[in-house]
Amino acid sequence: MASRRSDNKFGSVHNLPQLYTRPSSASLLSTLGRLKVQPAAWGDIAAASQFDEANLPRYLTSIIASSLAWIEEESVREQVWEAASSRLSERSGRTAIPSMSRTFSIPTPTSSSVSITLREPSLTADNLGHKTWLASYLLAKRLPSLAPYLPAFKAGGQVIELGAGTGLVGVAVAAMFDVHVHLTDLPAIIPNLLASVTANSLSITQGSTSVGELDWSSNPNCYSEQHKAYDVVVAADPLYSPQHPAWLVATIDRVLKRDGAARVVIELPLREAYAPEISELKSRMAESGLTILVQGNERGFEDWEENQRGTEKTEVGCWWAVWRWGPLSLTLGKDDTTVS
């Protein structure tokens, strides 16, 4: 459940407007506005709820169940019911939360930062790409430090993001470097991805972007040499099924240029359930001729975990790496960075 952040001082639900007093619609709408759960964003200081969260669902349900007969205009009653329903859904887990926009502050190579606003539709099990996951945020923040290992970032290169989701990494690359970034994902994800990329056009001051469908499971025989057009492949948190390691590596093989400057950048959360897939990915990358140039570990906190309460978050370890063609390998020590 999302973190609760508010500057209001209601505290107990008994201090909220009680229905038996027939509060005005303005009072109810103002109260429901203050009860809104703001979308979390990494780096924010999340304060504990200043409400009696245990009893708020009952309060909200009572408003939804009430006829609100003392409010004359039906359209206004509808507004109150809708607001109460929204506040209740915000407290019912990530999959119940309606569509929202979230803004992320990403550091740039010039020590400034760029603000990237992304739209996140309601999360469903079959559209996990509609959420901005921790690995995407960590990789976006790491881009300036990885730039020395990515020659194409200095030479107007071509970059493709696989499994772009909400587009945070790809937009961050285009906002920081003079490159063209092609953001790709499955057809169901594309409309929201395109909307997010378009919404950040003013932030993309260095490079350029395009958006397109790319299904990793497609027949590799349909790809010709002209598809090997990208200097850099980036992907964040791309493994969600046993088939993904094979599909991902095959797709990289199809789109990555065969030259000494070509690079692959991936960041993965070290989820225990996906340990076999991570191990298989590493093996398949090596078998394809790609060697790790630099790698490291970092930790962060997922901001939209089910069953969260107050300021509690789930800490997640992540691993990142940069690959290149050839045998040369350089491994950095572990990175102790923790991002909340």
Explain this structure to me?
With 340 residues, the protein is of the alpha/beta class. Helix content is 28%, strand content 21%. The strands form two sheets. The chain has an eight-stranded mixed sheet. The chain has a two-stranded antiparallel ribbon with strand order 1-2. Helix 2 (56-65) packs antiparallel against helix 3 (74-90), helix 4 (134-146) runs parallel beside helix 5 (168-176) and helix 7 runs parallel beside helix 8. It starts with 24 loop residues before the first helix and ends with a strand.
Question: How is this fold's topology laid out?
Answer:
Blueprint lengths: L24 H10 L21 H10 L8 H17 L9 E8 L5 E8 L13 H13 L11 E4 L6 H9 L3 E6 L4 H10 L8 E6 L18 E5 L7 H12 L7 E7 L5 H13 L2 E13 L11 E12 L12 E2 L1
Parallel strand pairs: 3-4, 3-6, 4-5, 6-7, 8-10
Antiparallel strand pairs: 1-2, 7-9, 8-9
Helix pairs in contact: 1-3, 2-3, 4-5, 7-8
Summarize this entry quickly.
With 340 residues, the chain is an alpha/beta fold. The protein has helices spanning 25-34, 56-65, 74-90, 134-146, 168-176, 190-199, 244-255, 275-287; strands at 100-107, 113-120, 158-161, 180-185, 208-213, 232-236, 263-269, 290-302, 314-325, 338-339. The radius of gyration is 23 Å and the shape is elongated.
